[in-house]
Design goal:
Shape: elongated
Largest sheet: 6 strands, parallel
Distance between the termini: 16 Å
Radius of gyration: 19 Å
Number of strands: 9
Oligomer: single chain
Bound molecules: zinc ion
Strand order of the largest sheet: 3-2-1-7-8-9
């Protein structure tokens, strides 16, 4: 890390220290979880190309889920579940900042539940969570362990509700599906009230999530990302560093 980045990280930490109670909001993307060893499912590797005949965006679309549920669950369980992953330094620090009364909300594009595992309670999951699953017919809720057991029992590899036989669907937002209105509104409200907004580990390329930062009207916008984003000019500080490094204090 160069000296300028080190000085900028010090500036960021001073802003955190000076934030009024509840004034900080964190908005995170895939880069927050990759440091916990969760691969970005969009990055195709050799194995992927051999194994799956379709691009990932297609395999986790709603129309693909409806038409080919078995292939969907093969891909989903193989590529999108990382149930052994543990929270990293960024998750832990954010939970600590919430307990200290500095941080009011975590808005996340990740579906792994790692913020809650680290101890955060106000987590707005824009894309849902792999930890919640629901029967599409009778709406009974199931844990991910139950979903995996249902899949193991099924002859066709599609998890089904023991109560009614309906397909059990993960509570994650698939391509072609809308974001949950209440989660989106709560995220807008949190960002609109923030004095310090930290956007981390996202290329800010995916809408509508990327548009959320337009609601920010506070003092300091900080972007933490290894590579430049289309919104860097809007930021008061851009930190080209790992999220865990920036939150290691
Ligand atoms: Zn059911």
């Amino acid at each position: 890390m160069d000296e300028q980045t080190e000085r900028d990280i010090e500036t960021f930490r001073q802003w955190v220290a000076d934030t009024p109670p509840g004034g900080m909001v964190f908005f995170g993307g895939a880069g927050v979880s990759t440091e916990s060893g969760i691969p970005d499912f969009r990055s195709p590797d050799g194995l992927y190309a051999q194994k799956y005949p379709h691009p990932p965006e297609q395999m986790i679309s709603r129309s693909f889920f409806d038409a080919h549920p078995r292939e969907f669950f093969d891909f989903y369980c193989d590529r999108m579940l990382a149930l052994d992953a543990q929270p990293n330094q960024a998750h832990r620090k954010l939970a600590e900042l919430e307990r200290a009364g500095t941080l009011s909300a975590v808005v996340t594009q990740n579906i792994d539940g790692l913020h809650q595992k680290a101890g955060s309670s106000n987590v707005l999951e824009l894309h849902g969570s792999v930890l919640r699953n629901c029967c599409m017919e009778c709406k009974t809720a199931y844990s991910v362990d139950e979903l995996l057991a249902q899949r193991d029992r099924a002859e066709d590899g599609v998890p089904r509700c023991p109560a009614c036989g309906g397909i059990v669907k993960p509570d994650v937002v698939l391509y072609e599906e809308a974001l949950d209105e209440r989660t989106l509104q709560a995220s807008v409200d949190a960002i609109a009230r923030a004095a310090l907004l930290v956007v981390a580990g996202t290329s800010l390329a995916v809408y509508p999530a990327a548009g959320l930062i337009d609601f920010f009207q506070g003092d300091h916008l900080v972007i933490v990302n290894r590579t430049p984003t289309p919104r860097d000019r809007q930021a008061d500080l851009c930190l080209a560093a790992n999220v865990g490094e920036v939150f290691d204090f």
